[in-house]
Amino acid sequence: MDLSLTEDQSMIQEMARKFAQSELAPVAERLDQEGDRTHFLHNLKRLAELGFMSLNINGQYGGTEAGSVVFSLSVAEIAKACASTAVTMSVTNMVAEVIQAVASEAQKNTYLPRLCSGEYPAGGFCLTETTAGSDPSGMKTTAVLDGGEWVLNGAKQFITSAEYAGVFVVWAVPDKNVPKGKGISCFLVENGTPGLTVSKAEKKWFFAE
Ligand SMILES: Cc1cc2nc3c(=O)[nH]c(=O)nc-3n(C[C@H](O)[C@H](O)[C@H](O)COP(=O)(O)OP(=O)(O)OC[C@H]3O[C@@H](n4cnc5c(N)ncnc54)[C@H](O)[C@@H]3O)c2cc1C
């Protein structure tokens, strides 16, 4: 089996490396410590412009269609320079991939171009709760159909880039009567939806003594 990279894969890996080392590495520590929102948003926009926010998304939605190998190579290069940016990039790609895999065509046409182009700085993936981490079956967030609209109730935690996300994939349980762990479904929730509150970001850095 030939595991060597194709010319395209090598080229995109090199592009990720150059971008990461020249634009992310010099500011990574400062952004983590000071939380410079404007500069972080600029970096996310650059990632989208270079096609790194939609590596497995079809071209018809504005995606890069570069494949999983390129995704792994790229996120590794970004992470070498700035782990925070790499996590946001990784989650945003994941959100786009979930939408591409299971959303309706109308939802794909609405949300994917916004994620691919950087109109949305990031996507949010809302699974984890205080009672649901490694084991999502402990999920307590409910979804109830009320007058033709789904009403979600619950609280998520550790949501990467929640303050920057334009849209969230939110996991919830629509039917409390199903056995534990069954029936978990996902919903698209736009940032700014009435009733949605994004709380303050966790401080994730510390100085070693
Ligand atoms: C940088 C970062 C970004 C994140 N971003 C997101 C995000 O965008 N969206 C989101 O939904 N979540 C996110 N998370 C949350 C992450 O998915 C959870 O932290 C993870 O699922 C683990 O859940 P937990 O923290 O509740 O730990 P727990 O599930 O409570 O696990 C604690 C420890 O117990 C161990 N453990 C658990 N169950 C078992 C078992 N059955 N047997 C043996 N050992 C076990 C685990 O390995 C772990 O060491 C993020 C987390 C981090 C660190």
Please outline the helices and strands:
Elements: H1 7-34, H2 37-49, H3 68-81, H4 83-102, H5 105-117, E1 122-126, E2 142-146, E3 149-153, E4 165-172, E5 185-190
Parallel strand pairs: 1-4
Antiparallel strand pairs: 2-3, 4-5
Helix pairs in contact: 1-3, 3-4, 4-5
The structure holds flavin-adenine dinucleotide.
Flavin-adenine dinucleotide is lined by residues 87, 91, 125-128, 133-135, 158-160.
Walkthrough of the structure:
With 209 residues, this protein is of the alpha+beta class. The chain has a single domain, classed as Orthogonal Bundle (Butyryl-Coa Dehydrogenase, subunit A, domain 1), CATH 1.10.540. It is built from five helices and five strands. A hairpin with a 2-residue loop joins β2 and β3. The radius of gyration is 18 Å and the shape is globular. The mean pLDDT is 95. The structure holds flavin-adenine dinucleotide (FAD).
CATH architecture identity: Orthogonal Bundle
Number of helices: 5
Q: How many whole angstroms does the radius of gyration measure?
A: 18 Å
Q: What class do helices, strands and sheet pairing give?
A: alpha+beta
| Strand ordering within the main sheet | 1-4-5
CATH class: Mainly Alpha
Global geometry: globular
Kindly state the mean pLDDT as a whole number?
A: 95
In total, how many beta strands?
Answer: 5
**In terms of per-residue confidence, which ranges show pLDDT below 50 for 5 or more consecutive residues?**
none
Residue fraction in strands: 5-15%
What's the N-to-C terminus distance? 48 Å
Secondary structure: helix percent: 40-55%
Hetero compounds: flavin-adenine dinucleotide
The sequence of SSEs as H and E is: HHHHHEEEEE
Tally of discrete structural domains: 1
According to CATH, the homologous superfamily is Acyl-CoA dehydrogenase/oxidase, N-terminal domain
CATH-defined fold name: Butyryl-Coa Dehydrogenase, subunit A, domain 1
Question: What's the multimeric state?
Answer: single chain
Largest sheet: 3 strands, mixed
